[in-house]
Amino acid sequence: MVPVTALTPPKNDPSFANVWQELKWRGLVHVSTDEAELEKLLAGEPVTYYCGFDPTAPSLHLGNLVQLLLMRRLQLAGHKPLGLVGGSTGLIGDPRQTAERVLNTKETVSEWVGYLQAQVQRFLSFEGENAARMVNNLDWTAPMSAIDFLREIGKHFRVGTMIKKDIVATRLNSDEGISYTEFSYQILQGMDYLQLFREYNCVLQTGGSDQWGNLTSGTELIRKVEAKSVHAIGTPLITNSDGTKFGKSEGNAVWLDPAMTSPYEFYQFWLNTSDADVVGRLKVFTFLTRAQIEELQQAVAERAYAREAQRTLAYEVTSFVHGVEATDKVIAASAALFGQGDLAGLDEVTLAAATRELPAATVAPGQLGIIELLVASGLAKTNSAARRTVAEGGAYVNNEKVTDPEAVIDDTRLLHGRFLLMRRGKRTLAMVQVGA
User: CA-CA distance, 362 to 368, in Å (whole number)?
Assistant: First the structure.
């Protein structure tokens, strides 16, 4: 059984002949330039590669994590990463399937650039011979005039080719249409690749397969301007087995910033992965070896009820993104909610995250009787139903059974001076806050 007590250190699996073979096995290559040439390139001397992240939000999300992990795997193979945060492209935003993006202010985009740079830096190594570098495309676009942009870059793009790009074609055929602003995005991304090729000899760009038109705009620009062949890899869009877009829940992304998606919510997201999806997630999002993942695959087939694969996935990814200490707190919180750990030992942030989805009620300070609390929390509809719950041994306050229907809960029982976790039976929970 694969242990879930320690984070697997980031390293590539030596059972593969080269990093390209491992990327293929993990399902990370959906589309690419010449595969044979790419395999040869990545198996040879260190090369420089890049991936771009636009600050269209104050945090990266799970779709970006695919790229960050791919960048880390290539760096572990000896190659040199450039992490690009788009201070200029973020002011425009790449075209979406449906409608025009709302343009954020320059001040907001600049602030978000800082946030995203800090996030990217956590996943790459900035030491050693293949140390990562951070770059910002605003550095080379801001000094360029519109005339220079059109003369030096725009002349190499053909409108007929540009409108055939999938996302552009989709928008052109919609009622919304597409503005020249978003239409020009692929030219800007192509210019980024050209700039990085010239300055750092960057010869590979990675991105999601939905960005393939933008990726190839760069390879084509370099071919035309420099008469050189460079490469691109498009990773698959990760979807659940039912076809829904991965990383989305009722329209809300799962963010890497703990203030936007708490470590508890993040862990639960992975823990709730279906049996049909979990092996694929282990391949993409963890550094477990092929042998370890095949062992977990067998566990899913033989004893799915134990959810070993899901627990391993949740531990590995949450620890990698938020750290082992935060993950251990999450696991402790999950256990404590149902009486298998120290509820009083949970910090307030973790407790709040763990109970956020529970029914909640607020009561005034004072003498808090168990019957009143059961009714106020919604765990009992009437006083008589609450008394019946107590009499049957099904009433708990902070995981301690209450057997006296006249019991009063005093201030010393409050968690962090204001919370009570109520439970009816084994698994029905509610949260009561005392005071405003």
Answer: 12
3-state class (DSSP) for residue 257: coil
Strands 360-363 and 252-253: unpaired
Q: Using CA atoms, how far apart are residues 40 and 65, in angstroms rounded to an integer?
A: 26
Using 70 as the pLDDT threshold, list the residues of the chain that sit under it. Answer: 1-5, 247-252, 436
Q: Is residue 374 within 8 Å of residue 407, measured between CB atoms?
A: no
**In 10 A of CB 330, how many CB atoms?**
27
The one-letter code for the residue type at 300 is: V
Dist CA 415 CA 346 (whole Å): 9
Dist. CA 11–CA 142, nearest whole Å: 38
Those residues whose C-beta lies under 8 Å from the C-beta of residue 143, and which sit 6 or more positions away, are none
Query: Model confidence over 39-73: pLDDT tens digits?
Result: 999 999 999 999 999 999 999 999 999 999 999 99
Q: Which tokens is 278 given? A: 């979990």
C-alpha distances out from residue 288 to 3, 6, 12, 236, Å: 11, 12, 9, 20
- What whole-number distance in Å separates Cα of residue 235 and Cα of residue 127? 27
pTM of the model as a whole? 0.90
